[in-house]
Design a protein that fits this description.
Elements: H1 2-35, H2 37-48, E1 49-54, E2 61-62, E3 68-80, H3 87-105, H4 110-122, E4 128-129, E5 135-136, H5 137-143, H6 152-156, E6 158-167, H7 175-178, E7 180-181, E8 187-188, H8 189-193, H9 195-198, E9 203-210, E10 213-217, E11 230-233, H10 237-254, E12 258-265, E13 271-280, E14 283-285, H11 305-315, E15 323-325, E16 330-333, E17 336-339, E18 348-350, H12 351-356, H13 360-371, H14 375-384, E19 402-403, H15 415-420, E20 425-426, H16 429-440, E21 445-446, E22 451-456, E23 459-463, E24 468-470, H17 476-491, E25 506-516, E26 519-532, E27 539-546, H18 555-573, H19 579-583, E28 597-599, H20 600-610, E29 613-616, E30 624-630, E31 633-638, H21 654-663, E32 667-671, E33 677-680, E34 693-698
Parallel strand pairs: 2-11, 29-31, 32-34
Antiparallel strand pairs: 1-9, 2-3, 3-4, 3-5, 3-6, 7-8, 9-10, 11-22, 12-13, 12-27, 13-14, 15-18, 16-17, 19-20, 21-24, 22-23, 25-26, 26-27, 28-30, 30-31, 33-34
Helix pairs in contact: 3-4, 10-18, 11-13, 11-17
Subcellular location: Membrane
Organism: Pontibacter aquaedesilientis
Protein name: Transpeptidase family protein
Length: 699
């Protein structure tokens, strides 16, 4: 009996506890659902619905003639609210919509899409991502006409979520100068340096967190983003292309490690081309800005002899005809021996010949004789020339120059002569070029610039003017002397292989030994810096080819030919430098040039230069025109290029045709060997899709 009663008692106690627990659960449910229901619903809503940033459209980067170097193109993710459409609209269009989605994405069957959408509608889901692939604007327009979608966002439920991608119409051209910026706000080039202007200000809108993503809620409280400003650079895309091609050929031929080319306008300091190429396993690419950054900061070698000669002429009454005995090509200084390239030496030569032949001994002796008692005076001249300071260039990452002072612990008895020929110091190529540019500019040192304007649409927000860093780096007499020496290098010295019959070049070759593991090795940094035309300088330029291999690895053999190729192309396309030749040309107005179509600005300029009359129904807003002859003049008519349509390129040069068709994202095949487009395979005005290909025939 006692055992039976004990069991019954335990059962009753257990039952009572279960009942109490059940009552507690019921009470808690009632409390949450009824008593505190409003509170928890509010918390749920706050967690599910929140404000999120709406990215602003990033500004464009333009070249000097306003060709787009970088822009943001719109792409879209396609989402869907299957509960919005009326039953009649939904049922009538779901089968066709599923079939179109299957054909477009080519990843799932029509039945898969139909079931996915219908199940979401039945479950009351307000947002589903139809596919993770992003579509372009033309595909968006096409989808917007599909069944159910054609009713729009509010009645059909289609949601096109905008995603912007950075696009460079000229591909790899000036890639490092244009630069990039990543999601962590790290980057390089103009994209990084001017991110504050390009990025704009993000907006804000309500988004609902649901399965598959975040659905925007347009309740009228959203804040529209402020799109970024555009920047207009000083880069000339044609000269940039020339510089990159010339540099690439030299790097491949010499199996070099890297190289750079900078082309700058003498008077304004505007950078017209800045090419940088480094060797990788896949070839040469623009992976670093050697022209400006720390990796390109090296001992300049013989191009620095210009600074040494400037200091000599400023400090003494030395003349170009004074002589220096360079001996047998070997010069003992303290415990080291300096040599010249020529075996047996140059003997006794003039100061001008010292520079033309790039005699290390000649320069070192002149500096030693005149500054040995006060080497700091030589260093002070380098400070005066601005070589110890950065240029304040508009791009982030400019290397800091290293010019040794006599107070440095590493200053030895041979430092003065080593510095005189470009060793025991470091400069970036742009900093060396700025000195040569100052000499070309009659002693006025200007700050290099690469961005001319910041603007929104046609409204200029900020303009960057030419800034003078030093209005007189040396006396007029000194500048005259060193300019004569620089011309002599090309006429008679180490760079006479680039002498031109059409215009004069002035410059200096450089060949500096490289340091590895603290020792100089038989690898060189070769260079050529100068300007042209020498009698009335328009451009200055520097070329660096690092670690060329093979025979003839001196600056005159490696870097100078690249300079000449760039200079020749720049001279050929700049009619302002051809005045003497142009004055002898008498235009034959009875014979009109065979012009059919092309750029309005280019054709107007050329016809004006050769004295051919032209009339126009086009305006300067019409970039492309067609040309028809009228008696003794030519008539321009607009030849508009519409986005999404095949343009008319007949009559154009191959270069213009490829430029226009490439900007329309068309795949182009070229036939024939002529100069102009005779016919095209796709009629003008035809709608473009991703499969559109066009063949152009030259005549």
């Amino acid at each position: 009996m006692n055992i039976k009663k004990s069991i019954v008692l335990r059962v009753r106690i257990a039952f009572l506890l279960v009942c109490l627990f059940a009552c507690a659960i019921v009470y808690k449910v009632v409390q949450i659902q009824v008593l505190d229901g409003t509170k928890w619903k509010q918390i749920s809503k706050e967690r599910r619905i929140r404000y999120q940033p709406v990215p602003a459209t990033r500004g464009n980067i333009y070249s000097d003639n306003e060709s787009i170097l970088a822009t943001s193109l719109p792409f879209y993710r396609v989402a869907f609210d299957p509960a919005i459409a009326q039953a009649e609209t939904f049922n009538a269009g779901i089968d066709s919509l599923a079939m179109l989605l299957s054909r477009f994405y080519k990843d799932q069957s029509p039945e898969h899409y139909r079931r996915k959408i219908k199940n979401a509608r039945h479950a009351g889901r307000r947002y589903i991502r139809l596919n993770s692939r992003q579509i372009n604007y033309q595909e968006k327009k096409m989808m917007a006409s599909w069944p159910i979608f054609r009713a729009g966002k509010n009645k059909g439920g289609v949601i096109f979520e905008k995603v912007e991608k950075r696009f460079k119409p000229f591909g790899m051209l000036a890639e490092r100068a244009i630069g990039f910026i990543n999601e962590d706000k790290n980057g390089a080039g103009l994209e990084y340096s001017f991110n504050g202007d390009l990025a704009g200000t993000d907006g804000e809108a309500l988004f609902e967190r649901i399965a598959g993503g975040n659905k925007p809620i347009y309740d009228g409280t959203e804040v529209a983003p402020q799109n970024g400003y555009d920047i207009k650079t000083t880069i000339d895309i044609n000269l940039q292309d020339v510089a990159e091609n010339a540099l690439y050929k030299a790097l491949v031929e010499k199996n070099a490690d890297y190289g750079c080319v900078i082309l700058m306008e003498v008077k304004t300091g505007e950078i017209k081309a800045m090419a940088n190429l480094g060797k990788t396993k896949g070839g040469f690419i623009e992976d670093y800005n050697y022209a400006v950054g720390n990796q390109g900061r090296t001992e300049p070698g013989s191009t620095f002899k210009l600074a040494s000669m400037l200091a000599l002429f400023e400090h003494t009454d030395l003349d170009l005809t004074d002589t220096v005995d360079t001996g047998d090509g070997r010069y003992r200084i303290k415990n080291t021996t300096m040599t010249d390239v020529k075996i047996g030496g140059y003997g006794k030569i003039t100061t001008k010949e010292v520079f033309e032949k790039s005699s290390n001994i000649g320069v070192a002796k002149l500096i030693q004789e005149n500054f040995k008692d006060n080497p700091q005076a030589f260093v002070d001249y380098l400070h005066k020339f601005g070589l110890s300071s950065t240029l304040g260039f508009q791009m982030d990452g400019e290397a800091r120059p290293y010019i040794k002072n006599t107070s440095d612990k590493t200053w030895y008895g041979t430092t003065l002569t080593s510095m005189s020929i470009g060793y025991e110091m470091k400069l970036a190529p742009l900093q060396t070029l700025a000195l040569y540019n100052a000499v070309a500019n009659n002693g006025v040192k200007v700050q290099p610039i690469i961005v001319k304007e910041i603007r929104r649409a046609d409204q200029v927000i900020q303009t960057f003017q030419t800034r003078v860093l030093n209005d007189r780096i040396a006396s007029e007499e000194t500048i005259k002397k060193v300019r004569a020496m620089l011309e002599g290098v090309v006429q008679n010295g180490t760079a006479k292989n680039i002498k031109s019959a059409d215009y004069k070049v002035a410059g200096k070759t450089g060949t500096a030994r490289k340091v590895k593991d603290g020792k100089y090795v038989k690898l060189y940094s070769t260079s050529f810096a100068g300007y042209f035309p020498a009698d009335n300088p328009k451009y200055s330029c520097i070329v660096i080819i690092d670690s060329p291999r093979g025979v003839n690895v001196y600056g005159g053999d490696v870097a100078a030919p690249v300079f000449k190729e760039v200079a020749d192309k720049a001279y050929a396309r700049d009619l302002a430098m051809h005045q003497p030749l142009r004055a002898r040309v008498v235009p034959n107005k009875d014979s009109l040039p065979q012009v059919k179509a092309g750029s309005f600005d280019d054709l107007s300029l050329i016809l004006n230069k050769i004295g051919i009359s032209s009339h126009s129904t086009a305006t300067h807003d019409d970039e492309w025109v067609r040309v028809t002859p009228q008696m003794r003049s030519l008539k321009f008519e607009p030849n508009p290029v519409q986005g999404g349509q095949v343009p008319d390129v007949t009559g154009m040069t191959l270069r213009d045709a490829l430029f226009i068709l490439g900007n329309q994202h068309l795949k182009v095949h070229v036939e024939g060997m002529g100069k102009r487009v005779m016919k095209q395979s796709v009629q003008p005005g035809t709608e473009i899709n991703k499969e559109t290909k066009i063949t152009i025939v030259l005549s």
